[in-house]
């Protein structure tokens, strides 16, 4: 059984992100008349590192920093506010690579393949076969799915602000690259925002739907054909050379690829070994053999993903237990309850109370802040 009162002690060196992801944080906190330095110090983030922008910091500290800062500043839309200070330049070399793309499709491909250059836990994926009731069945829609998949997430309960920030920056970068050809249709959030929904609608200039299975931007499929008439062929040659030298043999691990494929299709019948193997252009036996070599199995990856997401949904969303069960691919709420009891030694309701209490204690103990977390 997981003890939610203790910080998990596994090696977290791989869960790192560039400090440029916090550009604008100090400005926004000062606007709220909150001194950001004690909070930065609490999460071991140096102000000099923020100014440098290219220093690696622990992703879990960034997440916890934003959640606590949002509460301390009473700023429910902190992530959105910070995003207004960020543009494609925060992505560093990845930003240069993206700007060398000749089509919108290539922008998404570069971002999907190389987002690890900005943060090892960041994921961006394009789904051209959208199955959602947000649109008519025959609508020509694509979804750009944004996610954060930490290898160590047992002491991370809420990711509202960092998901808002990442999705907002993705939106701003795509709009910048596409200009007046960019047209966002809808936005989905996996959590229930603490800020009024109208704030999100004004920011994205589109309908925002909460309590969904993942964070995503929905665009018309025609956008994939947008051509960028860049005349900077020198930059393209430099980028091609860079990619060839640095990442010719780079492939995300088979575990990460399987986890991401399951994540996208978790609530549908496609989240099974045969379908995922087909998505990865592999035979199911070959997939299982590679997972065995990595010391895991398809079932273990899927179960761990469900466990992580259950905790996140309980804290961040206002979904009913039956809705959470459906989103996680359980046939019945009772099946979810049994799984939760097996994973955490308590019912979903008890787990939610424990998680909220643990988060509140963790975030307030060092600063003496006595406000309890509200969901």
Feature tags:
DNA-binding transcription factor activity; 5-stranded mixed β-sheet; two-stranded antiparallel ribbon; globular; Arc Repressor Mutant, subunit A; 375 residues; AraC-type_N; 17 helices
Short structural summary:
The protein has 375 residues and is α+β, with helices and mostly antiparallel strands. The protein has helices at residues 25-31, 37-42, 47-52, 59-72, 78-83, 93-99, 104-114, 160-178, 197-204, 233-247, 254-265, 273-279, 284-293, 298-316, 321-327, 333-344, 348-364, and strands spanning 16-18, 56-58, 122-127, 141-148, 184-188, 207-209, 215-220. Residues 256-354 form the HTH araC/xylS-type domain.
Q: How would you explain this protein's 3D organization?
A:
The chain has 375 residues and is α+β, with helices and mostly antiparallel strands. It folds into two domains: 76-247, no CATH class; 254-364, Arc Repressor Mutant, subunit A. The chain has helices at residues 25-31, 37-42, 47-52, 59-72, 78-83, 93-99, 104-114, 160-178, 197-204, 233-247, 254-265, 273-279, 284-293, 298-316, 321-327, 333-344, 348-364, and strands at 16-18, 56-58, 122-127, 141-148, 184-188, 207-209, 215-220. The chain is globular and about 50 Å long. The two termini are 24 Å apart.
């Amino acid at each position: 059984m997981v003890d939610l009162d203790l910080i998990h002690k596994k090696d977290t060196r791989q869960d790192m992100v560039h400090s440029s992801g916090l550009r604008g944080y100090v400005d926004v906190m000062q606007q709220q008349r909150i001194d950001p330095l004690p909070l930065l110090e609490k999460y071991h983030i140096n102000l000099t590192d923020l100014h440098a922008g290219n220093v690696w910091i622990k992703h879990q500290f960034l997440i916890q920093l934003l959640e606590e800062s949002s509460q301390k500043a009473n700023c429910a839309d902190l992530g959105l506010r910070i995003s207004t200070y960020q543009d494609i330049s925060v992505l560093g070399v990845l930003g240069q690579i993206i700007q060398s793309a000749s089509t919108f499709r290539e922008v998404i491909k570069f971002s999907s393949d190389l987002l690890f250059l900005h943060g090892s836990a960041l994921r961006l994926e394009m789904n051209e076969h959208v199955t959602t009731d947000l649109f008519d069945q025959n609508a020509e829609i694509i979804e750009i799915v944004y996610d954060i998949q930490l290898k160590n997430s047992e002491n991370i309960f809420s990711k509202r602000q960092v998901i808002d920030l990442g999705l907002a920056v993705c939106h701003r970068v795509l709009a910048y690259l596409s200009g007046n050809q960019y047209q966002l249709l809808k936005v989905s959030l996996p959590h229930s925002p603490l800020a009024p929904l109208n704030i999100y609608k004004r920011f994205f200039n589109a309908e925002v739907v909460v309590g969904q299975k993942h964070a995503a931007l929905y665009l018309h499929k025609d956008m994939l054909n947008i051509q960028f008439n860049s005349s900077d062929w020198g930059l393209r040659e430099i980028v091609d050379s860079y990619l060839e030298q640095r990442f010719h043999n780079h492939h995300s691990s088979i575990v990460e690829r399987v986890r991401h494929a399951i994540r996208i299709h978790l609530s549908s019948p496609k989240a099974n070994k045969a379908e995922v193997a087909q998505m990865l252009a592999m035979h199911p036996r070959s997939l299982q053999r590679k997972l065995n070599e990595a010391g895991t199995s398809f079932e273990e990856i899927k179960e761990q993903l469900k466990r992580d997401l259950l905790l996140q949904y309980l804290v961040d969303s206002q979904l009913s237990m039956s809705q959470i069960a459906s989103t996680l691919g359980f046939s019945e709420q009772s099946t979810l309850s049994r799984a939760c009891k097996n994973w955490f030694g308590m019912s979903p309701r008890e787990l939610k109370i424990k998680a909220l209490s643990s988060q509140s204690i963790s975030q307030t103990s060092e600063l003496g802040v006595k406000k309890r977390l509200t969901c």
